[in-house]
Amino acid sequence: MKEVSVLIVDDSRISYTMLKNILAKTNFKVCDYARNSNEAVEKYQQHKPDLITMDMNLPGQNGIETSRRILEINPQAKILMISAMKDAQLMTQGREVGISSFLQKPVVPYEFIDTLLLLYQNEFNTGDLLIESYIHPLLKIFQNEIMQLYGIESKMSFHENIEKENTITGTAVIIGLTGNPTGRVVLYAADTVMIALAHLMLHIEPDEKLNDEDAREAFAEAGNIIVGNYVSQIDDTLKDKDMRISPPGMIRGHKMKIVNLKMRSFIIVAVTDIGELALSISFAGGKE
To answer: Which domains occur in the chain, in start order?
Structure first.
């Protein structure tokens, strides 16, 4: 990806420095910094940046009004609102003006970079939009949730599954994706790995007996948490998406076939000290 210019609008030099430092080793390059509404409009016209980060609380006109002024100049301007407040009313006002996405302070570095990447890819359609917009964020969420749920580190890899079906042995949690886009997520692992993960999640000693039903319910809940957090991030980042998840279902068996007809499918594998945990995500209709 070529260098992408970013204009930071924030009345706090500390906030500006934090955002600038996050972007320092990326292809996002800060072209300038504005402290108030008039400066923001002036520097937008001067630099014509690819992306803008906009603080809500600016002296004089606030971030929403400043965004309105910039969007009157260029209705296609991509603006990321970053504010200490992130309530429904603020987001509704921002979307009515035309603000592209929202994050809450203090920003999480990977979420900040991912959000800028999604906004840029969505606008200029460079590279494979499906992978950049949907798979890369899922990789990071999957890894983070494994640490949060189980307290273990993992190494991630992914590949596109070009086969018409995926063969699974063990236990699988199936969660449907509805809205835009539609699809399906399958979290699966060997039974021995599933049981070991349930012990960690439920804080049960490894040598303590765990009944099969509790282990399966823990695995289903983990899938629900992982996919729910993923869908929430996509919906927050891409304003024209409205993804939802269906209640999880479970299957268990040997060499089960998951069919991927008319779907573009990816497999993410998390390698941990207790075994592999895999996640398959498929989108209806192939490439967007």
So the answer is: 4-124 (3.40.50.2300), 129-284 (3.40.1550.10)
